[in-house]
Design goal:
Elements: E1 3-9, E2 15-21, H1 25-34, E3 38-46, H2 61-65, H3 70-85, H4 90-100, H5 105-118, H6 123-128, H7 136-148, H8 151-207, H9 214-249, H10 251-263, H11 267-288, H12 293-301, H13 307-321, H14 327-333, H15 338-350, H16 353-409
Antiparallel strand pairs: 1-2, 1-3
Helix pairs in contact: 3-4, 3-8, 4-5, 7-8, 8-9, 8-11, 8-16, 9-16, 10-11, 11-12, 11-16, 12-13, 13-14, 14-15, 15-16
Length: 410
């Protein structure tokens, strides 16, 4: 069934925008008028036919909408949770959210979800039609909430979960922002010195036909190479980045990168804590909302970005399917810390695995924050020392011939 995007007004003269399914342009207008809306513009967004059973869009539906930022989606989920908790029906809650939006990809997706719910589809099934916007974790939690009659509670937990993930990501980026800015600035300044300032200074030394010390000769050679071949470096760096990206897209390349990342000093600890925190937070949230353990593990496997940990989760899921406890295969994997395994084992024995996993996530996030603090406190002086050493070498290489000339003149 074709999908139409409309702009119109309700009985009070308030502007309304959204998506409507109809067989034709005129049918879309009639459908809107039957809902008390007076369309001023109706445009077909997609001519794709429904893919069997219920009017879902065909496979290109998400390429039409594009991508939605996670930081844009979570506030909408928080609004939906608040409105549902206040007692509003689901359709009315979506109407309230859509009325506050000024267009954009998320507005179109939510309008499409609202239309599908209005046609009788469940919220979980409506969200499942947009896998690039709503991941498996969100769909599974919403489905569990609908089945248990606690949808508003599930939406609140989803919003809490998303806000915690955003905050964790913000901490990581803010911790790395200053060192990266310092490194970039240092490289730009050094490149300017070597390609513009140093050649002008060293030309004086050649004109005086004086023997130069080896630091000055080395500096001149590096400067000449940068001057003559600077146009090769930018394409070379871009090519190297492209090849690295292509390698990391392969299964073997990603496995090697993930395995070595866990072994790197300090960085390995950051990668491990971040991955385990996300694993524990997602799995704990799913279990606390009634999703079975095996199904939850299959969902969590897709949110673990490190392939080494993902392989361990696959093994755990298979062992759980065969009737084993979760803690035993985790311990055998050698990837998860002993304290994490012990807490999970305690949660299994006490029947509070979901709650215990959330405590593991809190612990890992605390450890990650501490590791980030240590990393940044070490990284900044190391970068200052490195850049200072390079600048010091440049200064010494320039001053040595000047000292020699002053000694000869004196």
């Amino acid at each position: 069934m074709p999908v139409y995007e409309y702009t119109g007004f309700d009985a009070r003269g308030k502007e309304k925008k959204g998506i409507v399914n109809a067989d034709s342009h005129s049918a879309a207008g009639q459908k809107l008028r039957s809902q008390g809306l007076y369309p001023s513009r109706i445009a077909e967004v997609s001519g794709q036919e429904a893919s069997g059973g219920g009017g879902g869009l065909a496979t290109k539906r998400l390429s039409l909408w594009g991508r939605v930022r996670y930081s844009e989606l979570i506030p909408a989920i928080r609004q939906l949770a608040t409105l549902l908790s206040a007692g509003l029906p689901l359709i009315s809650a979506f109407d309230a959210i859509l009325s506050q939006m000024k267009g954009g990809t998320l507005n179109k997706v939510l309008a499409r979800v609202r239309e599908r719910i209005n046609e009788g589809t469940s919220l979980a099934e409506s969200l499942r039609e947009h896998p690039k916007v709503f991941d498996q974790t969100t769909v599974a939690l919403v489905e569990a909430g609908e089945e248990s009659g606690t949808l508003e509670l599930v939406m609140e937990r989803l919003a809490d979960f998303g806000e915690q993930q955003i905050e964790l990501r913000r901490k990581v980026l803010s911790s790395l922002a200053y060192p990266l800015l310092m490194l970039t600035t240092g490289i730009v300044v050094l490149f300017f010195l070597m390609t513009y300032v140093i050649p002008k200074v060293t030309r004086i030394f050649f004109e005086m036909e004086q023997a130069l010390p080896w630091p000055t000769l080395l500096l001149i050679q590096v400067s000449e190479v940068l001057q003559q071949y600077w146009w090769i470096y930018i394409p070379g760096v871009l090519l190297l980045l492209a090849l690295s990206y292509r390698l990391l897209r392969t299964r073997r390349g990603k496995e090697l990168a993930d395995r070595y990342a866990l072994k790197l000093p300090l960085i390995g600890k950051l990668v491990q804590d971040s991955a385990i925190s996300r694993f524990a937070r997602t799995l704990g949230t799913l279990l606390c909302n009634g999703v079975p353990l095996f199904q939850a593990l299959l969902i969590v496997r897709n949110v673990v970005t490190n392939s080494v940990l993902a392989e361990a989760v696959d093994t755990v899921a298979e062992r759980v399917r065969q009737g084993e406890s979760m803690s035993e295969p985790l311990a055998r994997s050698g990837v998860f810390p002993a304290t994490t395994v012990q807490m999970i084992d305690s949660g299994e024995q006490s029947g509070t695995l979901g709650t215990m996993l959330l405590k593991v996530a809190d612990s890992m996030e605390g450890s990650l924050a501490a590791s980030l603090s240590v990393a940044t406190s070490l990284l900044e002086p190391c970068m200052i020392l490195l850049l200072g050493s390079v600048v010091g070498f440049v200064v010494i290489a320039v001053l040595l011939p000047i000292f020699e000339m002053s000694r000869v003149v004196g």
